[in-house]
Design a protein that fits this description.
Strand order of the largest sheet: 3-2-1-4-5-6-7
Helix content: 40-55%
Largest sheet: 7 strands, parallel
Keywords: Oxidoreductase
Family: Belongs to the short-chain dehydrogenases/reductases (SDR) family.
Pfam families: adh_short_C2
Number of helices: 8
Protein name: SDR family NAD(P)-dependent oxidoreductase
Radius of gyration: 19 Å
Oligomer: single chain
Distance between the termini: 43 Å
InterPro entries: KR_dom, NAD(P)-bd_dom_sf, Sc_DH/Rdtase_CS, SDR_fam
């Protein structure tokens, strides 16, 4: 079933791999005009080529989301192609799993610049094109780390920041018909998740009631919903897609341990 996105222009950042790639491919299959933005220029071009081979419309552009100048250049490029932007998916991000004392000053700045400032620059510099649409949707990819306490200083702070900044955007752009929501994925089977040890993933899964990680395509389905008219009254909201982890993962883990140990259920 389609989402009514055919002919709409959508920009996806961090689109060359992981969730961004799945989102761009899904948008291409829907008939959207997809702008593939990524720091890895060659992989972005390859993805745009694939979308075109599959019969879709796609353009690629190199973008460092932490660079305001890069955002301004991309805004002008998209403007020359059509003058408006119907959807923006601020998907680009980096992982960093260290606490306050173990986080270097350099890593703190890098994580916050990419994960949070990149979202700010995206909304700031694409705002004129989004306003031109009259019914645009912005999806800012946060994390379950932006819904609960988290052990990683820079990552947790940046993802909470995305959640709050999305609400600012929802208020600021509502009059122009632009919706802004934050997306909070849980464990998703991407290279970013696997960038650490497998033990981290295996241990984390014990707290996921669904009992598995998500496929990137499952996250893309939710992104398409938020970009579509089916969510036209949804703005300033947090969309959590985590297999139940934040809703009751702690107790799922406790009751599971009790069952395994032969203990009495609460």
């Amino acid at each position: 079933m389609g989402h009514g996105l055919a002919g709409r222009t959508v920009l996806v950042t961090g689109a060359a791999g992981g969730m961004g790639r799945a989102e761009a491919l899904a948008l291409g299959a829907e008939g959207a005009r997809v702008w593939v933005a990524d720091l890895e220029e060659a992989r972005g071009r390859d993805l745009a080529d694939r979308i075109r081979r599959d019969g879709g419309w796609a353009r690629s552009a190199r973008l460092d989301v932490a660079d305001p100048g890069g955002w301004r250049e991309l805004r002008d490029l998209i403007g020359e192609e059509g003058g408006r932007l119907d959807g923006l998916v601020n998907n680009a991000g980096v992982s960093h799993r260290f606490g306050i004392e173990d986080t270097t000053d350099e890593d703190w700045r890098r994580v916050v610049e990419v994960n949070l400032s990149g979202v700010f620059y995206g909304m700031k510099y694409m705002a004129p094109l989004l306003r031109e649409s009259g019914a645009a949707s912005v999806v800012n990819v946060s994390s379950i780390a932006g819904m609960t306490g988290y052990f990683a200083a820079g990552y947790g702070a940046s993802k909470w920041g995305v959640r709050g900044l999305s609400k600012v955007g929802a208020l600021e752009f509502a009059g122009a018909g632009v919706r802004v929501n934050s997306l909070h994925p849980g464990l998703v089977d991407t290279p970013l998740l696997r960038s650490g040890s497998d033990d981290f993933v295996d241990e984390s899964l014990r707290s996921v009631p669904a009992g598995r990680v998500a496929d990137p395509e499952e996250i893309a389905d939710v992104v398409l919903f938020l970009l579509s008219d089916a969510s036209r009254y949804v703005t300033g909201a947090e969309m959590v897609v985590d297999g139940g982890l934040t809703s009751g993962g702690l107790y799922h883990r406790i009751t599971g341990a009790l069952r395994e140990g032969g203990g009495r259920q609460p």
